[in-house]
Design goal:
two-stranded antiparallel sheet; globular; six-stranded antiparallel barrel; 29% strand
Length: 149
């Protein structure tokens, strides 16, 4: 099996300290949080500004990596499902995917965000602009045209 290395670009600073007390999704009451971008990656924030929506990819460092089946939303009354059919953080490669709104970007490389359910000290893997539905559809059509469909 090939091994790959992921280098964190920063870390989450949040009042959420315990996984068990964090909301399952950002829109379920997550507090505002700060993303500390390490200095060597701060230039990559160029173009990110307040009111932008971005997708934050995190490494869910407290996840159980041997989990293959889970009860959705940790609800034992629900039937077990494969982790690939759920949003569970417990999975072989615990990459978190969080759509958030940017409130502020500082000159020191800190990003203030709303709607992030990741706990304090969660490593950041990447940031990407969030696509609007029309932008996503445009990309699908553009790829289809390029493929000759």
């Amino acid at each position: 099996m090939n091994r790959h290395t992921i280098v964190p670009i920063g870390r989450v600073h949040s009042e959420l300290k315990e996984r068990a007390k964090a909301p399952k999704q950002g829109w379920e009451g997550a507090p505002d949080a700060w993303l500390e971008i390490f200095p060597e990656f701060a230039p990559a924030l160029e173009g990110i500004a307040a009111a932008c929506e971005i997708v934050v990819l995190t490494w869910l460092h407290e996840a159980q990596r041997n989990a293959l089946c889970v009860h959705p939303r940790d609800d034992d009354t629900q039937a077990l499902k494969g982790v690939f059919a759920t949003r569970s953080s417990d999975r072989p490669n615990p990459i978190g995917l969080h759509r958030v709104r940017v409130l502020e970007v500082t000159s020191r490389g800190w990003v203030h965000v709303r709607g992030l359910e990741a706990i304090d000290a969660t490593p950041l893997v990447d940031l990407k602009p969030a696509l609007t539905q029309s932008a996503a559809l445009f990309e699908v059509f553009a790829e289809a045209r390029t493929a000759g469909v």
